[in-house]
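Protein modeling request. Please complete all fields; requests missing the sequence field cannot be processed.
Requester role: graduate student
Desired output: 3D structure, token encoding
Chains: 1
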Amino acid sequence: MAKHSERYREALKAAGVEPGQLMDPQDAIEAVRKTCSVKFDESIDVAVNLGVDPRHGDQMVRGTTTLPAGTGKKRTVIVFAKGDQATAAEEAGADFVGAEELVAKIQGGWRDFDVCVATPDVMGIVTRLGRLLGPKMPNQKAGTVSMDVSKVVNDIKKATRVEYRVEKAGIVHLGIGKASFSTDDLMANFSALMAALIKAKPSAAKGRYIKKITVSSTMGPGFQVDTQRAQALAEKSR
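Delivered output (238 residues):
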């Protein structure tokens, strides 16, 4: 049995929750908000254990979704584009826009950005950055390769558009907001994430798909969510 710190046990006690107790999604989110005690605005995170093996390509879970209330995080967005699309990206609020010169800047060691977006017609030069960009590489499945760069940039800058990807251990980690958010906003974001993950279920995944859900804050304990209630909630929001 895992040993927990005194601080962890005190936080659970303050929330009136027993270790390992399965909770209704709303109750879990309210408990997380109640246990936020540090001075900064903590992030509220969700960890979902999926019944997939990401080592197999046909069991990869990856995509983008829109969180209705946003995440509360500011992100620096760069866009690889030319002509009218470059102008549209700038007008939408992209922090840096360019083509060959932007590629050269990154090849020179610049990394001061969070998200990369590109139009399909310039991907030929962007692919030179494969090893340098790693997971930040613009990807059509992730929605970051698009001719509608204005919408993509808008969604990212408003922090409503998020990308999720299952890790090697079969877990998806994603922030759904801040402790300062209302419970209703956090619930709307939680439901949107769960609906997206359920929709993204690979046909090759067998057995139980949603195995475990934990909600936590940056510095607080994790609260386990009843998976059946979470899935029922997600189905209503679809």
